[in-house]
Amino acid sequence: MSTIFERLLLREKKSATTAKERLKLVLVHDRMDLTSSALDSLKDELIAVISKYVSIDTDAVEINVNQEGREQTLIAIIPLQASRKRGVR
Amino acid sequence: MKAQVITITSGKGGVGKTTATANIGVALAALGKSVVCMDADIGLRNLDVVMGLENRIVYDLVDAIEKRCRLRQAMIRDKRYNTLFLIPAAQTRDKNAISPSDMIRVCDEIRPEFDFILIDSPAGIERGFRNAIAPADMIIVVTNPEVSAVRDADRIIGLIEAEEKDPVRLIINRFNPSLVKRGDMLTSEDVLELLAVDLIGIVPEDESVLVSTNHGQPVVLNHNSLAGKAFENISQRLIGEEVPWMNLDGKSDFFGRLSRLIRSGRS
Q: Would the pTM count as exceeding 0.90?
């Protein structure tokens, strides 16, 4: 049922909305001069380096680019293994 | 008098740089300003035909830079406004014939005598673009509400900022209110949000631009044209006047046209 709903939503989506979403992504990469595969390897290497010192939840690592006007900030969310366990308990 | 040098650029070709340069130039002259329009697209000269001055060219920018003539001799006076001049590009040379320092020198030479120097930049991000922005006090980026033009505008804005050549102002050209209404064209808000620069004007898509250009008469001279009015508004903003944004939501088009018709009938 959800797929039908999604399909309906997809059909409703205007081409201008698609254009804006695609442009948003493209501009992030253009401005950083970084392809998405390069961003992936950055993430892998970052995980490797941090793992040398602390144990982290590698599956939960998130790397995002935050936009503020024309300024971009790379934001990494790296949950620590121990703190996550504490959180669960 | 010390002229303000404004470079009109875009990244992508064919978005309306030359049309914008010619029309802003004519509109500024109509407001009583003295203006030089300079074609920096060496090898692909076009500002002359858009301004309707192609038959008057004797010398060009490269002739002046290489001292085959005085700069004054390369300046063509407009047929309509005697405070408007064109410095045409060379047609048989390429962008490497001139350097950024040549452009700065040329502008410095005429700055004392004019209010505005408008430079029509070539498309692209290489030498020609660097030449065109070198003397600029302000840079106007022209884009269309369309993916490739917006992407290239973003790239060019990044390069301009890296050169610390601010401020950058944006013209959204060929804006089609009915496509926007249908959801098939980016809105001006979308474009501004994506590019994060200040807007100086939205120019609606208008057949009269093509028709005027066919005649070598910039569209600002046609007082019934919506695009012409938009270029006029941009020029007024450039001289520091506050002009309300044109209503382009696609609804009041008819009434706008009607009121302009009535106004032009009266005068």
A: no
Burial per residue of B122-131, b for 16 or more beta-carbon CB atoms within 10 angstroms, e otherwise: bbbeebbbbb
Alpha-carbon torsion B251, B257, B263, B265, what sign? negative
Q: What is the ipTM of this complex?
A: 0.83
Which segments of A52-80 does DSSP mark as H helices, in order?
none
Domain count, chain B: 1
Domain borders along chain A are 1-33, 35-89
pLDDT tens per residue, range B162-206 = 998 878 999 999 999 999 999 999 999 999 999 999 999 999 999
Structure-block tokens of residue B9: 């650029």
Q: What CATH number is associated with residue B64?
A: 3.40.50.300
Comparing alpha-carbon positions, the chain A residue that sits nearest to B154 is: A27
B186 touches chain A (CB under 8 A): yes
Structural domain boundaries, residue B162: 4-266
CB < 8 Å from B in window 14-53 of A: 14-17, 19-20, 22-24, 26-27, 30-31
Q: What is the dihedral of CA B257, B259, B265, B267, to 10 degrees?
A: -120
CA-based nearest residue in chain B for residue A14:
B183
